[in-house]
Amino acid sequence: MERHLVFLDESGFLLVPSIVRTWAAKGRTPFIRVAGTWNKISAISALSLSPKQKCMSLYFQLHANKNIRTEQVVGFLRHLLRHIHGTIFLLWDRSRTHIYNARH
User: Three-state SS for 60?
Assistant: First the structure.
């Protein structure tokens, strides 16, 4: 049976323009005009290593304008199980957000 080492994590990207201090002539405040709305993208991804086949695979899902919650994590893990055959050793950080509440 083939074994896979899988590194998993999630992240959020806020699509807000950077605002920093800058130089300007005295009394002439610089303005930045931005078109559109400020949105965010949440991503969950996994990097799979297969020592037997000596290959590496990247899996990811993007979610627009929402945080990664239990439903998205469970869906992503099911996606991994459909694509990775064999035993999976999952390495995931110890964030408190990953603790599943059995009452849900």
Answer: strand
Residue 103 in this model has a pLDDT that exceeds 50:
no
Q: Contact 57/47 with Cβ under 8 angstroms?
A: yes
List pLDDT tens digits, range 56-70. Answer: 999 999 998 888 888
Using alpha carbons only, give the angle 72, 73, 74 rounded to the nearest 5 degrees.
95
What's the Cα-to-Cα distance from 92 to each of 8, 21, 71, 81, 97, rounded to whole Å? 5, 37, 17, 16, 11
DSSP string over 26-51 = TT--------S---EEEEEEEEEEET
